[in-house]
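Archive maintenance. Older records in this collection stored only the sequence; we are now back-filling the structure field for every entry so that each record is complete. The fields below show one back-filled record exactly as it appears after the update. Entries are processed alphabetically, and CoA transferase is next in the queue.

ARCHIVE ENTRY
Title: CoA transferase
Organism field: Alloalcanivorax marinus
Length field: 408
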Amino acid sequence: MSGALSHLRVLDLSRVLAGPWAGQILGDLGARVIKVERPGRGDDTRGWGPPYLKDGDGGDTDQAAYYLSANRNKESVAIDITRPEGQALVRKLAAECDVVLENFKVGGLKRYGLDYDSLKAVNPKLIYCSITGFGQDGPYASRAGYDFMIQALGGLMSLTGRPDGEAGAGPMKVGVALTDITTGLYATIAVLAALTHRDRTGEGQHLDMALFDVQVACLANQAMNFLTTGRSPQRAGNAHPNIVPYQDFPTADGDLILTVGNDDQFARFCEVAGHPEWAGDPRFATNRSRVEHREVLVPLLRQTTVMKTTREWLDALEAVGVPCGPVNTLEQVFEDPQARARGLRREMAHPAAGTVPTVASPLRLSATPPQYRRPPPLLGEHTREVLGDLLGIDEAGLETLFAEGVVA
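Back-filled structure field:
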């Protein structure tokens, strides 16, 4: 392997999305990622379907699409960690790894002897990344945390959705589990930072990642809008609180997303729209004035955008450098010429279905690009291989572990 992280081993004890997402990123970059799962059931998301991956005849396999989204480039080892023999195996694996990812409740792994202090005793250089809903301390530390609930509690849903007074008004979650995804990204960054520190000092450490912390951090400009004014931002639908025009507009046959980022772009839009006078109107000449007079400007724009099709607007605005785009379905996304050119859909060989589609990593490194070595594994697909190769357990020892139900 020639990936940037091909010298690393990661023990992934996590399930569902945030932890597995971090593990998949590390695996894409070359790390050997060993996913430990419960015998018989495995990662919860294995059963989160339909939809399921189709086999060559078009029938459903038992591989849920949700599970497939976050477990590429991993090896699956099924170990019963509720049994002392299983716990001992995980400790031995941790001794051979650089990183552990886990997302059990606070203290959940301590009773199995798999918490940070226990694994640090067998591997002092270990980077141990805990991902929970609320972190290792604070009044909510013992609570379970799920993306949907954290989007609400962390303020994101108060900013998302149509404003009060409009049809369909009310708080709305994002269409993907975005807090899980961003937590997985932050966890990956923390792991890489801790590894760099270890390279300099030889010191391992415990990483405390919380979905709640990440969600609040990702409020970004909206958090600062509140912190600088003391006023909570309100839902604005697809409009932007600080930029106008920066939202959806109706066209003759659909919708157009217009994202005007500066006054020069607005002036060029006005020329294309046949209203150059708007750019000189003191109510609209600057972004600040446009924000202050959005209730006047936006209706004028809507009356104009409905006069052309989405394609006509896209062609005319792109020609003069005004940022805009259509509202694509996922079918249209993967058919888009840019998506095709960038290879955003890939196919990998799969033991149960022949092939499995996957979404390409967005990481583009000129010398050590992401690799697509392994499809998301079947449950326990690599138990024998990993325990034999990494721990040196012979065939007789493996047969005993299988027979006693410690592994599967």
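Update note: Residues 110 and 118 are 8 Å apart (CA to CA). DSSP finds 18 helices and 13 strands in the chain.
Entry marked complete.
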